[in-house]
Amino acid sequence: MWVDTHCHLDAQEFNGEGDLVAARARAQGVQQMVVPAVCCANFASVAELGKSGGYALGIHPLFVPEAQEQDLQCLRTTVAAAMHDPYFVAIGEIGLDYFLPELCTPAIREKQEYFYREQLCIARDFGLPVLLHVRRSIDPILKQLRRIGVSGGIAHAFNGSEQQAQMLIQLGFKLGFGGALTFSRALRLRHLAATLPLSALVLETDAPDMAPSWLSGTANSPEHLPRIAEIIAQLRNISLEQLATQTTLNARAVLPRLPVLS
């Protein structure tokens, strides 16, 4: 079986049919999908869709500019209640985005960093792993991870250096790989997927984003995860079965609350 550790089944591209998207993915062998939140407004919808395998609660850096202080209290309160939910697995999607120009003004960068720190503290207080958004921000991400100890997590859509990968691994993180490496020009990413310890890799689609090469700019879906996995298996010269078994074990190791579905 495959585990998609990061897919946004509640995204508007799925037209409210996230359950049907999940069903198509299960038909392709993707038995579990972890659905991360992006803001307080979608906490309820991801909790419902999380019955496809698990969900996370957090405030995405793209939503930080409009977020208010009370959103952090909303997160803390919702997390406290969700600790009784067997499908609740992590804090996420949280992190820093220094790629989009509108997120890089001094005031917004400072606000991003504040929300990131505060959400790491929530994860630490509840003993939860985190799903990290890391876009041109790996060094400040690492700085706060060293300062605020959390129970590991996943560096979603990892695209850093080998040295940065090792730093994250040492801090108890797995590295998420998905559609970006299906492009033949993604040489560095393919090298990382081929050479990093297999025990450090988890698979993801980030659906409806991060579409693989064969989708030609259309919306991604978790049903494409096995085909993405084929490329990783080829790069590593291992069987699909070995990749499926190990990446599933990795996902369960880093997300210990991930339910075992029959």
From the N-terminal CA to the C-terminal CA, the straight-line distance is 11 Å
Give the topology string: H per helix, E per strand: EHEHEHEHEHEHEHEHH
CATH class: Alpha Beta
> Which stretches are poorly predicted, pLDDT < 50 over at least 5 residues?
none
Oligomer: single chain
Task: Please bin the fraction of helical residues.
Answer: 40-55%
Strand content: 15-25%
Structural class: alpha/beta
Sheet with the most strands?
8 strands, parallel
Strand order of the largest sheet: 1-2-3-4-5-6-7-8
CATH superfamily: Metal-dependent hydrolases
Rg, Cα atoms, Å:
17 Å
**Structural domain tally:** 1
Structure description:
This protein has 262 residues and is an alpha/beta fold. The chain has a single domain, classed as Metal-dependent hydrolases (TIM Barrel). 41% of the residues lie in helices and 16% in strands. The chain contains nine helices and eight strands. The protein has an eight-stranded parallel β-sheet. The longest helix is centred in the middle third of the chain and has 21 residues. 47% of the residues are buried.
Summarize the entry for a quick read.
The protein is built from 9 helices and 8 strands. It has 262 residues and is α/β, with parallel strands linked by helices. It has a single domain, classed as Alpha-Beta Barrel (TIM Barrel), CATH 3.20.20.
Features of the shown structure:
262 residues, alpha/beta, TIM Barrel, eight-stranded parallel beta sheet, 9 helices, 8 strands, 41% helix, globular
